[in-house]
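Much of the work behind modern protein science is quiet bookkeeping, done one molecule at a time. Below is the pair of lines this work produces for a single protein:

***
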Amino acid sequence: MLQVPAYVAAQVLGSTLAAGTLRLLFNGNQDHFVGTAPTGSEMQSFVIEFIITFYLMFVISGVATDNRAIGELAGLAVGSTVLLNVMFAGPISGASMNPARSLGPAIVSSQYEGLWVYLTSPILGAIAGAWMYNMVRYTDKPLREITKSASFLKNVNST
């Protein structure tokens, strides 16, 4: 349990240092914000961030915790999910999916407008995604044992 606060602190520190490094390296326009901010309403961004973080956590739960998943493809599954999330949600909310990713640049730039969206929605989305995966995961049987009987195919073929 002591690891969680240290993990959160490390993420926020890393995000803050990264945003600070960008500010030092690219010294042209110092008022350019490298963080995430809603382009539409805050509620639109809240809902979008919830949905994309839900999907991301659902996929992560599946490939990282389920022994039925193909481990070698875990990175591809998670990376593809992040890519699709950014493609669809990036123009609306910035596709943060991580409170620390938004908090660090906000601290460096002292721009906190709409930050509550990125601190609450991804946390709620991740909790809901993990909870839903645990609800869907109804068995610990390996996939080959579930599909061996092909009972789900018999139902499809008989109709």
